């Protein structure tokens, strides 16, 4: 039916971590791989799969510490019990703004409005580390075209509402272009994600 929003992913470390940039974290991980650890919200979660991808791109296999959700994982990052976490803006931005963690990079080519001072992964030297989480509306395969059109119109109306846009942006989400809010745009987007 259409793309609703995208959510940038950030690489963040405990406040006391010696790394202050993504490049410094990469160097630190290669030197401290056997003792390093990353928190995540549980096997299969966004934070888990993103950290796995990050570790793969960097070429390290530190210990992953699984939690029962992002809240406990973030609590231990803030408390200094774990080294780093890869997660969405909605979870990272409030802690970064409070100064309880250090956010080193956003895993995309453009800076995020949620944390505009945080460099991109490309700026940090990892141009091949790009991850976003996205939400979209779908319908069963043989849904009649007029129904899809009605649902798409409702999606576009909602995403044009200033209150809804403001709430999504407050959570760190980014509103897609008008083209991506269409069935054809979503299909192209998904194809690119699969590739």
What characteristics describe this protein?
alpha/beta; 19% strand
How does the major sheet shape up?
A: 6 strands, mixed
Order of helical and strand elements = EHEHEHEHEEHHH
Summed over residues and divided by their number, the pLDDT gives a mean of 96
- Helix and strand content put the structural class at alpha/beta
Question: What is the global morphology?
Answer: elongated
Number of strands: 6
Can you walk me through this structure?
This protein has 195 residues and is of the alpha/beta class. 41% of the residues lie in helices and 19% in strands. Strands 1, 2, 3, 4, 5 and 6 form a 6-stranded mixed beta sheet that branches. Helix 2 links the parallel strand 2 (37-40) and strand 3. The longest helix is centred in the last third of the chain and has 16 residues, at 145-160. The two termini are 20 Å apart. The mean pLDDT is 96.
Question: What's this, in brief?
Answer:
With 195 residues, the protein is α/β, with parallel strands linked by helices. 41% of the residues lie in helices and 19% in strands.
């Amino acid at each position: 039916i259409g793309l609703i929003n995208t959510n940038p992913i950030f690489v963040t470390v405990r406040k006391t971590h010696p790394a202050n940039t993504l490049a410094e974290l990469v160097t630190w991980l290669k030197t401290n791989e056997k003792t390093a650890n990353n928190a995540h919200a549980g096997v299969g979660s966004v934070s888990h799969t993103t950290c796995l991808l990050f570790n793969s791109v960097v070429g390290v296999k530190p210990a992953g510490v699984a939690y029962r959700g992002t809240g406990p994982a973030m609590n231990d990052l803030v408390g200094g019990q774990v080294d780093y976490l890869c997660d969405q803006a909605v979870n990272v931005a409030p802690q970064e703004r409070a100064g309880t963690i250090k956010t080193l990079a956003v895993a995309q080519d453009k800076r995020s409005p949620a944390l505009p001072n945080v460099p991109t992964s490309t700026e940090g030297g990892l141009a091949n580390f790009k991850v976003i989480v996205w939400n979209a509306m779908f319908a069963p395969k043989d849904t009649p075209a007029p129904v899809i059109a009605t649902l798409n119109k409702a999606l576009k109306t909602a995403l044009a509402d200033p209150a809804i846009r403001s709430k999504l942006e407050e959570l760190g989400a980014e509103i897609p272009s008008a083209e991506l809010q269409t069935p054809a745009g979503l299909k192209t987007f998904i194809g690119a994600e699969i590739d």
